[in-house]
Amino acid sequence: MDNLVHLHDPFADHIPEQVEHWLARLPGAIQIRLNGADAGRTRALVTLLHGNEPSGLRAVHAWLRQGREQIETQLATNLVLILANVEAARTPPLFHHRQLPGLRDLNRCFRAPWTDAPGRLAQSVLATLVECGPEAVVDLHNTSGRSPAFAVAAIDDARHRTLAGMFCNHLIVTELRMGALMDSAETLFPTLTVECGGAHDPAAHQCAAEVLRRFGSRPSLFSPQPATGTLHVFHNPVRVELAPGASVSFSTEQPADVILDANVQARNFGVTMPEERLARLRDGQAGLLSVRDHRGRPVFGELFRISDGYLTPRLPLRLFMATDRADIARSDCLFYIARAH
């Protein structure tokens, strides 16, 4: 698991029709290098940093099945493809584990220390990117719940806005640094995370395929493009997490400290108005949640109030990345929020 394997010729053997069969045959985390029209430039696409987010893998698999000649005539530049958390993805049940049980989230490991297996794999991914010197990196993900596609960047500039506008209509810009690939690579090359939508949504698979096609084939990534719609930009959404030791569920039939609205993921990118209930808190305790901005400042009271034991917005809020999986809500976060505008 510790290092990327260079799959020198992915076309040497027949690529199975089923993505699950191809995944089972992979030697582990891999990199694939393909030649394009301009050999002096390289782009890189990273996916499967989380084993429960298969849309990027499905897109790469379907694309490679076209064959070398068909693919390389489409590519504007050289392209490096990285499939990272192969072991987590194929550990039963298939496409269920965000990371291998007992190990750190790979997309929180792109900064020192590099002492464990996920850290060493993250270091290997970074070393590969530095060595190939891409003009841009796209990190392709699925959202934890149902959601429209959106992009995330660490810097708000014309390059990142142009890249995001190629793929979707929403861009989140955050100064929060958590050890994600986007954080560490940002000082080296433009890096954009693209969240394609829910892991089991066919539209998300189609979105991932389109991201790969556009990213690989467009002659110039950063020249002005015809407008495909308005790009809505949101700055520094606040991360809402469980307090240490708190429990979470989505049903009153499963008692927990925090019982989230069962349909909370349907609120992604919509506006939640004051007095709408987001969660029930045991004994109305605000301390069951950690609500801090990107500087670490507690902002619960600015954004929320507790009414009859329920968490409600104090002002119109827009939610992102809400999930219906308790394990992800517990290990990562409940959702992100921004003031609606």
UniProtKB/TrEMBL annotation:
Zinc keyword on record: yes
UniProt keyword annotations, A-Z: Hydrolase, Metal-binding, Zinc
Necessary cofactors: Zn(2+)
Pfam families for the chain: AstE_AspA_cat
Organism: Alcanivorax quisquiliarum
Record's protein name: Succinylglutamate desuccinylase/aspartoacylase family protein
Succinylglutamate desuccinylase/Aspartoacylase catalytic domain boundaries: 40-178
Presence of keyword Hydrolase: yes
